[in-house]
Design goal:
single chain, mainly beta, four-stranded antiparallel β-sheet, about 0% helix
C-alpha cells in the first residue's frame, strides 16, 4: 500500500503526524514532539516534518512506514519543509543568528545555511536541487532562489508577506501571500 497523504498539526496525545492511503485509511502515526507547521512527502515515500523548536529538534524525516530516520535542529521554529528529488530536505523558518533556510542531505547532514533576511514561511526544492524561499518582507524582498549549493541566484518582491512558494518542473517559481 502506497502512502498518499500526510498531515501534521498541534500536539495531542503523542500524535502530530499521520500517514494515510489513497482511500483515507490511516497507515501510521508518529510524534514530532511538538506542533508541526510543515510536511512534505519525498519521491520514495519518505516524510519530512518541520515545527516548533523543542529539545533541539525542529525537523524529522520518517520512512514511508513512519519510522524515524533522523532529526535535526533548524535553530528556531520551522514554518516550511520540502523534500527534493534526491531525498534532500530544505527547511525555512524564523530568523536566528542570520539563518532562516537550511538544506540537509538525505542522511540529515547539514549541507548549507542561508539568510532570507526575515522569517521564511514557505520553502520548495526544484527538480535540479535549487531552493526557493518565501517569507516576510525585508528591504523589498519576499522571495529568493538559491542554487543547489546555497548561492543566492535572485531575489524578488511579491508585494506582501509570502506564505507559500513552489518550484515547477522547468524551474519557474510561484508564490502566494497576503493581499496588498
Amino acid at each position: 500500500m502506497s502512502l498518499y497523504l500526510v498531515t501534521g498539526g498541534l500536539r495531542a496525545s503523542d500524535t502530530t503526524t499521520r500517514g494515510y492511503d489513497a482511500e483515507g485509511n490511516p497507515l501510521w502515526s508518529a510524534d514530532h514532539g511538538t506542533t508541526v507547521n510543515g510536511v512534505s512527502i519525498g519521491p520514495s515515500g519518505e516524510v519530512a516534518t518541520g515545527g516548533t523548536r523543542i529539545s533541539d529538534t525542529t525537523t524529522r524525516l520518517y520512512s514511508p512506514s513512519g519510522d524515524p530516520l533522523w532529526t535535526a535542529d533548524h535553530g528556531n521554529t520551522v514554518r516550511g519543509v520540502s523534500i527534493g528529488p534526491s531525498g534532500e530536505v530544505a527547511t525555512g523558518g524564523n530568523r536566528v543568528s542570520d539563518t532562516t533556510t537550511r538544506l540537509y542531505d538525505s542522511t540529515g547532514a547539514l549541507q548549507w545555511s542561508a539568510d532570507h533576511g526575515n522569517t521564511v514561511n514557505g520553502v520548495s526544492i526544484g527538480p535540479s536541487g535549487e531552493v526557493a524561499t518565501g517569507g516576510n518582507s525585508v528591504s523589498g524582498t519576499t522571495t529568493r532562489l538559491y542554487s543547489p549549493s546555497g548561492d543566492p541566484l535572485w531575489s524578488a518582491d511579491h508585494g506582501a508577506a509570502v506564505r507559500g512558494v513552489s518550484i515547477g518542473p522547468s524551474g519557474e517559481v510561484a508564490t502566494g501571500g497576503n493581499r496588498v
